[in-house]
Design goal:
- This is Peptide transport system permease protein sapC (TC 3.A.1.5.5).
- Pfam families: SapC.
- It comes from Rheinheimera sp. BAL341.
- InterPro entries: SapC (IPR010836).
- The structure is a single chain.
- The chain has seven helices and 14 strands.
- It has 256 residues and is α+β, with helices and mostly antiparallel strands.
- It has one domain.
- The strands form five sheets. Strands 1, 8, 9 and 10 form a four-stranded antiparallel β-sheet that branches. A three-stranded antiparallel β-sheet has the order 11-2-12, with no helix packed on it. Strands 3-5-4 form a three-stranded antiparallel β-sheet.
- It is globular.
């Protein structure tokens, strides 16, 4: 579990990070949360499906990365091996916390286009945090410049968090649209690998293509005008990535 600490310019002035290690946060991630803005990029390498949040019961979009809990077929050699790095990994080791819940909230950050105040936090246990022999080592990123201003790396991290925040809001709207048009259906996967090992995946959902095709023209226009048709069709198209994912699994099994 992440150990979040509010970022403080005085305490973290000399903190150094290795962004290349962000992928290590995905080592045991079977289902990677994704937002609509990255559907097109993620769909080029992994199936995107819906599942229910275990705490709220609400539908969320996730990329399927493995066939068992804790399995990520895109992770090997201590690194993410996909062509596209999901926003959930790009933002590591930074998180947005509610102002009243953060420790020593001396450095608050208001997310762009959002009225709520958030505290920018860092996961103190993240593998991106390193201890270089010299704080001047240019191989590592820093949060602040010598004058205390945000570094370029830190500015990019803030932009990523803002994009995630907007994406999560858009995802809620997309899910609400799918529910209102009754376009969500359960998805069960029964798979047999090359070594004759079999598995079944339950608890996943996808788009009901028959109901989508049966929608009246005015309903399709509504979805198009709301900007939901593209992510809907991207979700559908991404299911074809199940076959390359099976191939990844077979290659890994062959090495055992």
């Amino acid at each position: 579990m992440a150990q979040l600490v509010a970022i403080n310019p005085q305490l973290h002035q000399h903190l150094r990070l290795q962004p290349a290690n962000a992928g290590r946060h995905s080592e045991d991630t079977q289902l990677m949360p994704v937002v609509p803005a990255e559907f097109a990029s993620m769909a080029t390498q992994a199936p995107i499906v819906l599942t229910k949040n275990g705490q709220t019961g609400q539908f969320v979009a996730v990329a399927l990365l493995g066939f068992a809990p804790g399995e990520n077929l895109f992770y090997s050699d201590n690194a993410w091996q996909g062509d596209y790095l999901p926003l959930q990994l790009q933002r590591q080791p930074f998180f947005l916390g509610q102002a009243e819940a953060a420790e020593t909230p001396t450095n608050t950050s208001t997310a762009p286009n959002n009225k709520e105040d958030y505290v920018l936090c860092i996961d103190s246990d993240s593998p991106t945090i390193c201890q270089p022999t010299s704080i001047d080592d240019t191989r590592y990123a820093q949060l602040f410049t010598e004058t205390g201003a945000d570094s370029r790396y830190f500015q990019q991290a803030k932009s990523c968090l803002a994009e995630l925040l907007r994406g999560e809001q858009q995802q809620q709207q997309l899910v609400q649209a799918l529910l209102s048009y009754d376009l969500i259906q359960p998805l069960s996967l029964d798979i047999v690998f090359d070594n004759e090992q079999s598995t079944r995946l339950n608890g996943l959902y996808t788009i009901d293509q028959q109901k989508l095709a049966a929608l009246a023209p005015d309903k399709l226009v509504e979805l198009h005008q709301a900007g939901w048709l593209l992510p809907i069709y991207t979700l559908i198209a991404s299911t074809a990535q199940i076959y390359p994912l099976i191939a990844r699994k077979n290659r890994r099994l062959a090495k055992c």
